[in-house]
Amino acid sequence: MTGLLKSLATSVVATGALLAAPAAMAESHGDCETITLGSAISLTGKYGVNGVHAKNGYEYAIQKIDEAGGVMIDGKCHTFEVIYYDDESKGDRSATLAERLINQDKVQYMLGPYSSGLTKAIAPVTEKYRIPMVEAEGASRSLFNKGYRYLFAVLSTSEQYLASAITLAAEMAEKEGKDPSDVTVAIAVENDPFSLDIRAGVKEDAERLGMKVVIDEKLPRDLSDMSAILTEVELVDPDVLVVSGRSKGAATAVRQIEEQGVSVPMIAITHCEAADVTGNFGDAANGILCSTQWAETLSYEDEIFGSASEYEAGFKEAFLEYTDKTVPYQVAQASAAVYVFKDAFERAGTLDKEAVRDAIAETDLSTFYGQIRFAPEGNNIAKPMVLRQIQDGAYNVVAPSEFASHELDWPRE
Asked: What count of other Cβ atoms lies within 10 Å of the Cβ of residue 394?
């Protein structure tokens, strides 16, 4: 099957599955008109795992919005449907599919792809055609210095992801009567925009606190082997190890840290939940710090999804494959992106895309995912990142202190 035919098949299957819920809901609250959203997203390839998480989050949000009465515009009920195409985790394909969605499928509103790199590929397309795009999975701060007017992101930018681990390491040093400048840091990240931003945020905070970065390495391209870097970590013996390589990199890091017996007092990694490191590696994951955009224990809530914990419970009920897992934040923020569209359409009171774009820009929305308010550049400036530590297989929020549900286990055994 050719790439295009594969993409078309994915679109038909995904859209058909999604249309089933609105059709059923229409019986309970009257016939609703359809608002079509488009999404070129990774359902296969390097980012396939997280792309599916995002798609599931989109679908759950549409289900919950329909259950709550749909999207009300000027007194009329509307329901969302999504046309999906599989970008196969390829930037050039993602841009091509965005063009197809706009020019052939006549989509006027877009949900984002997965990853900063693919968002970078699509953003020039949506900007050219003045198509509002609310994205949930592209965190690179470099997305928000291009002057885009039609790009909006519900998530915190990537330089914040693991910077809080550096602050936490400084706090631990001070508790031991040491100076933060005594702390040494090792960094190993994927060579992509998202992870390079994480690296920049970690280095900036380490420099601010006078810490020394003793290792600064790029992960191998396929993310399947970081044994050489971990051997260097063993030799240098840093106080903090920071790793960012999305789901595959997280799995490789946890597996090989255990295999090589690497002992570092503080290890902080991205994409722990998406990689299901607790399910795949058991006790080997204990003590690891995991950055997250959202956690089910946070005190966020709204009238559609309820509280953060109610969102998690409802999502697990709808998607049984997550029953024994922590719901990845990629799911939650995807749902939040759809909620932003609902709120903007209702405030705009029209389907005119320029009016909807302006309404999105003026968003100030309290959600189960956190507060959403956009800077002029399009990034969310109202929600912090948090750190969870894996403790006896559970993900517990340990930082920042105002959000902590548990004490930090430190040093990591």
From this structure: 12
